[in-house]
Amino acid sequence: MKTQIKSISRLSKATLLSGTLIISGIASAVAQSSQTPVYQGKVGKTLADSKEWWPAPVKAPKGAPNVIWILLDDVGFGATSAFGGVISTPTYDSLANNGLRYTNFHTAAICAPTRAALLTGRNHHYVHMGGFAHTILSAGFPGYDGRIPADKGTIAEILRENGYNTFAVGKYGLTPDEDATDAGPFDRWPSGKGFDHFFGFLGSQTDQYKPDLVEDNAHVKPDGRHLSEQITDKAISYITRQQKVAPNKPFFLYYAPGATHAPHQVAKEWSDLYKGKFDEGWDVFREKVFAEQKRKGIIPQNAVLPPRNAGIKAWNTLSADEKRLYARFMEVYAGYLTYTDHETERLVSYLKQSGQLDNTLIFVVIGDNGASKEGSQNGDIDRSILVNSQSEAETIKYNLNKIDEIGTPQGTEANYPLGWAQAANTPFKYWKQDANSEGGTRNPLIVFYPKGIKDKGGIRTQYSHVNDLLPTTLEYLGIKAPEYIKGIKQDTLQGTSLVYSFDNAAAPTRHNLQYYYIFGSRSIYHNGWKAEALHNTAFFNPSRNIADTARSYEKDKWELYNLDKDFNERIDLAAKYPEKLKELQALFDEQAKTNNIYPFIDWDDVFKQRIHKKSSVAQSTQQSMIGTPPNQINK
């Protein structure tokens, strides 16, 4: 008995006094392990004939770098100066000049599908995000229900189980509407998908000065500052706190500002930097960017600039009022993008000053799709125009009367005209949502890692996709994709690691097959060839007339391109090579079955049905959309 009492006494001094720490350590280890480990101690009748055991704490590989994924929104291939654009982005320029530029990188053509593919390393339909998590824009089929399954774990879940702290700030966009309240459930919030901390918004867009703001598992009141400033402060604070108590523990940060998605809102000190800079118009803009892209080696030297998209007027045919109005829209957009670059610079400067930058692997995806076509022909300031369906003349007059509100907290929508969207997408045709087109799916990628990138400023042309970033990160860190997460057996990854190309610009492409599908528009890439079909869904497309809508998928016109020789899809080869087209169409059908793309859904009809539903969920969703008209919901 005395022996037992002494043992208990020793236990109380040596162990119980730090019981909280020990219990916390056990909980952390269990939470981070893929499966509950087999107990390896000895349990006797007394402490004297027993042997204590705890699983070893999970640690990241020795010397593992911090990892930051930066994902911008609605930018366009030709907007940033880092990729030949005329909008100043010195931070992205610096990261690219000291890292790698990927010029043949692709997204899913719209926000939620891209983000789902990015975070899971799998195709968007395969993880059930063929549309959105919004009630109105999801459907009760495996590819469209908007709920990422637990057997398709995220990068945050994987890295947390391998000794990383995990943080996310900015736009999430993957939480179902009915779960996005403070009552939860929270398993589809960022905290339920592997992030230790989250600060940002759960939806697809938000006002930059009055955001629908969330911190961890609760909504919080915004402080009136621009959201980009708030998320940058929060990201720095998360890293600072973590490094104080665990300086040798790496972190993963997912930095996803709402910029440059509408509403385009930024302080006048930024938008006024571009006063008069766009008076020459979008045609001159495209020509300047195209020439600079050639000079920098971003595009082939023999490339030809495609004509303006259908419906876009030549700048020199516009009235003086139209030119003044449209130029101001672009000044605001450009200031918004430069300001976003500035906020990124604050994060990078903090890492440099704190001695962490050299051991930080940074991926910058400049846009989750092509530039946005959702601003209509004449631009949008506060949604009133699109809601009230005014004539073009009335729209221009209305916007001119409110020109000083563009970009301000009063300009609650603020999206530029379609002509600027195509200009921002130089050198491609078409734009966001168009999963058939490179203009909808091709976005710039920067990879920066001072300790590991040898070919600083190098350009990489290997075909790649947003689902490649997860396997790329894991391979570079020396971490294997887990067989289990939280006891749930994991499905196969579908992305292809890009590490093979880091030190070899001439390495053959390894990502040789990729489908795309958004709102009926679809395409399939295979070994340099691409077949594509535009489904003319006017309900989601303010640039097209509903009378022109091809309501039958069988009537959609398929086109064929050889991207190795015609990277921006100018020469349709469907008539010349009909067998190649049939081969790719059959391949798309195979991919559709494998990835849950079927059934094709006519979202025009779905939305019309659901907007009139009297259920509380539908009404709640409509409220959250603030009266968004049909061609704006897809944001």
TrEMBL record:
Q: Which InterPro entries match?
A: Alkaline_phosphatase_core_sf, Sulfatase, Sulfatase_CS, Sulfatase_N
Pfam families per UniProt = Sulfatase
Give the record's keywords alphabetically. Calcium, Hydrolase, Metal-binding, Signal
Write the signal peptide boundaries.
1-29
Start and end residues of each Sulfatase N-terminal domain: 65-479
Gene3D superfamilies, per the entry: 3.30.1120.10, Alkaline Phosphatase, subunit A
Look up the domain of life of the source: Bacteria
Q: Which family does it belong to?
A: Belongs to the sulfatase family.
Official protein name in the record: Sulfatase N-terminal domain-containing protein
Native organism is: Mucilaginibacter dorajii
Source organism phylogeny: Bacteria, Pseudomonadati, Bacteroidota, Sphingobacteriia, Sphingobacteriales
